[in-house]
Batch of 2 targets.
Target 1
Amino acid sequence: QGTGRGTGPDSGGAKVAETFTVAVTENRHREVGLAFLSMSSPTITLSQFKDTARYSCLTTYLESYAASEIILPDTLENGGLHTLLLKSKHDFVTFIKRSHFSDNKGR
């Protein structure tokens, strides 16, 4: 995993011109699911973890990838995660219908 904004997951900390679209979802148990889609290569990185109330793990992930856009389900609009993203440098958040985040269909 990269070590700073603008680094990719396998760049060893070297600055690369790689950006990602990131889809984020969360369940009621504060388990966060992430999908990082590289805009410069055909790769996707998936991650799932239980996070803290301050989303410290998520914040670390987002700082490690240069996200050009963050996609959230519309059910998280105006929630704690959305508020965190607005307070940080991530003001490029797009909301889509929750039905596009299907656990059973892998979407």
Target 2
Amino acid sequence: MQLCYSEVDSWTISTFFCVTAPQRNTSLTANLLLSNPVWVVTFTYPLPKPIKLLMYLREIVFVIQSQSSSFHVRQADRQRADLLKQAHSLTEKPPVVLLLHISLNSLGLADLSHSFGKNSSWIVFLEEETSVRMTKLVQVLATFDKNKEWFLGKPLHDEESTIIHHYAFAENPSIFKYPDFAAAWALSIPLVVRLANKVRDEPLKSDFTIDLKHEVALYIWDNGKGPHLTAVPELCTEPEDSPQALYCATTLGSELPMCGEAVNKEDIFVAVKTCRKFHSERVPVIKKTWEKDAIFLEYYSDHADPSIPTINLGVPNTERGHCGKTFAILQRFLSSDVPNTKWLLIVDDDTLISIPRLRVLLSCYDPSEPVCLGERYGYGLSQGGYSYITGGGGMVFSREAVVRLLNSGCKCYSNDAPDDMVLGMCLNALGLPVTHSPLFHQARPEDYARAFLAHQVPISFHKHWNIDPVAVFNKWLRDDLRAKPSDGLNRSAKTEL
């Protein structure tokens, strides 16, 4: 049954949403409005008094899913400082706040179970950009029995079966719910302890990590042997200043991260990988959509076609992998044959991308650092594997990253080796970080949950299969974002210093 509910007072959960009635310890009053046939329900949670509420706060461990590039470190440090400041206003003993990029090797389930299994009740995972209202979050968690297994979050679901989820639940994709990490998600300690024992006894077997939030939910659910995700309406992805966010425990900025002026068009060199058979099918889409936004762009093919024009790098075309072509592009980027730019963007010929939005995002990164940016996948991570930037959504490299890659002597083991994975192996061997941005997408908009895309300003999508790529570009990627505010940049975009 769908219900709408609202607040009672400052020490109760203050919310007005239409949701399925929660399975929590609540008292409930419902009235049917005859003039407007919806249920208006007030839930009164038997919340603890302020003193007891502070005890709940000390039982929470926050894990910020941070990354190691300087921009993300600043983001995570600010978030940690804000959490501790809020906690300090409530209690002298703050909760534990961990940063993933610092504690990466000590934040597995076994480590969390060992370190916090006896003196904590909840592990709460946050994205760097997730804002937390501490009192409300503690109030929400206090309504759940901490001695039971709970998997809490804002639920996402697939509209149709999708390749990024291996076509799971093909007959009814919407039946399975998984958390939107941007809204925060939480595990009760009893669940953490059991999962830690499970991992110890049955090591993870999955080779590829593609969509971690979906894979985490599948692992916890365990074909019905574990808990499903419990929806918590107070975990939100609404902007903090939105009226809808008034009663949220977590909020999110929906604008494009911006750290000053967008980088100049002249700072980005764009390399498009194509081949002769797609010259008339895919290249025209790029020319109709985003080519005009790039100052420096070259098409690399197995056939030199002056009408496009394309450049033959002397690497035979392969049906898959394209590693030889990609490494030839890296070498050309550092040569005198192309303009000296700070950034290299490598895309497929069926990648749809917003160059203006990319320029805004790159204002947050330092090109003197070895930056490798895009949508991050993983291979064999539970067995000491590596992360990599998946190529279809676009791979962004700073000049420094390309210099270090080529100076290392890393190279393809064959021309048709998977270029993105080989680059991931090289970066891992060099100890260089792979930086994830959820704004890059390896698949089509249809392959992602609608609610997941709703709070994004996406930068790229990939594949022309079963879609009109020009229409998709116009709907999702064409707008008035430009290099400077005077050019029409979204003035509400948040600034990250």
